[in-house]
Amino acid sequence: MYVAVKGGERAIDNAHAWLAEERRGDLNVAELSVAQIREQLALAVNRVMAEGSLYDPDLAALAIKQARGDMIEAIFLIRAYRTTLPRFGVSLPVKTEDMACDRRVSATFKDAPGGQILGPTFDYTHRLLDFALAAEGETPVVERGEARTEPTPHITEFLNKEGLIQTEVASEETPGDLTREPLELPANRPLRLQALTRGDEGFVLSMAYSTQRGYARNHAFVGELRIGKVAVEMEIPELGFAIEIGEIELTECETVNQFQGSKTEPPQFTRGYGLVFGQSERKSISMALVDRALRWKELGEDNLGAPAQDEEFVLYHSDNIQATGFLEHIKLPHYVDFQSELELIRKLRREAAENLAAGETSVQEAAE
Amino acid sequence: MSDYNFAYLDEQTKRMIRRAILKGLAIPGYQVPFASREMPMPYGWGTGGVQVSAATLTPEDTLKVIDQGADDTTNAVSIRKFFEKTAGVATTEETAQASVIQTRHRIPEEALREDQILVYQVPIPEPLRFLEPSEVETRKMHSLEEYGLMHVKLYEDIAKHGAIATSYAYPVKVEGRYVMDPSPIPKFDNPKMEMAAIQLFGAGREQRIYALPPYCQVVSLDFEDFPFEASKAEHPCDMCGAEDSYLDEVIMDDAGSRMFVCSDTDYCASRRAAGHVGAQAAALEETAA
User: What function does the entry list (chain B) (predicted)?
Assistant: First the structure.
């Protein structure tokens, strides 16, 4: 019996109602507050801010709640909200050398001015499930030290003094904005870094990992990894000078990469750079490795045909909102296209069968 | 809805999109890059079409949204609701009543007029994409009018299958210049593209807009000895008896018996209202009653 596919509207409303019910879960269990998510699932909040390209922990926490913990869905909510926000202006570049570091480690020097600060890291924890956490009522008491007041200079600057590392030339040029202009290739480095910092963590991680396993290996050392708060300053036209409008938490990674020299460049260390909102170590290290791999052209290296060297491949596939949208859209109705494929395959099969029959007759004839 | 601007997008963004549309109309078939915005529906759900519609709509417009030819498919319902909410425009299911029609995968059966705009949702705007994955390369091929690869592909189809094995998103050449992807419409719809209405194509994820001005020449690629053929299921519609409309095949029972019905729901309904009856219409109405 043919039931016309009416009732799409009611189906949608019902689906939304059911979704809301599922989101809340068992009513006997206390509801999660946005503040709880912001405070206790901070790394998830950081990821949503980084890939959503919007620094707002409260909104990110709300998005996680609304998305039932689906990170890409939460990032999508933030992106869609971000589009509607008016743009008042552009901040000055943040000064990460003035960062108030919660964590700062270098894998290249045992000690350096500013010191090594482990900070709140999982690095040396043993990954044993802590069943005490399940038993509720955790109120850790932690000893406090004195905050350091002296500056924490970038480690790569020490190498730079010796001329051992390639110098980055400062530019006054306003970097492009991926969210306001269509991506056109070849992309310059600021644009690539922009795409990487909002790119999918898993994708950027895998791309970086592939370079470590030999697909355009670039021998990276973590010259420095720092996490902390930096001030955001903006020039207000009416005032004519910059004022501080707030502070954000960032993770910055600078890699020092071995480099044998090329036709155009002498042997020296080279750099990869990662900068991500919030505490996002894995992402910023990955970003630095991929950034370095993508710089093969300017350093006169060979194109080894590795995926991480292919800027078109990396930039066009790093955005998880684009990727998931296009991937999941194949569940939308396609019956018109499928119908035309049905007609075609039937026609081709009919013709193939006819040809086969004709062929058999002619073979028989030849045998006779 | 007071929180958002008319038709959701802010005026700056709409202006940027309109510029891209005008450029597209001036260079028919050329893919104009535009700074696609993140919309509140996912990429792949018609974000390009929605942005083009948003930039095209005025408060006086009447909007029709179809998906697979039907007004009542879930995504068509969702997009129509979106514009009802954010633009407050009148909506309709009648092709003749609409001034702007957003479509996914079909061109309405009823001929469109000069005062109408047809907006297509486009997933992959690049007709050469599956022959050449790199955007840098395909843009070069378009600028050099280097379409040999496409002809070789069509030739290979014929050599292998005895026919061109493309049944939807069948490539066309516009005004003798650009090879263009008509979006995934069945090739049955290709001849309709030479029409009186303006046709706009929006690809959100791929950040491209292209356009066909009215009465623009649109030729489906073929060979002299293998001419293009607009095909459909060889049946009349079982509901309204139409012989000239594109049909969906509907599986009726476990035994696999099937019926064919117009994919254009408005076309089918208006024919039935005018008294046309298909082979199975009577039986169906009985069971329904």
Answer: Catalyzes the breakage of the C-P bond in alpha-D-ribose 1-methylphosphonate 5-phosphate (PRPn) forming alpha-D-ribose.
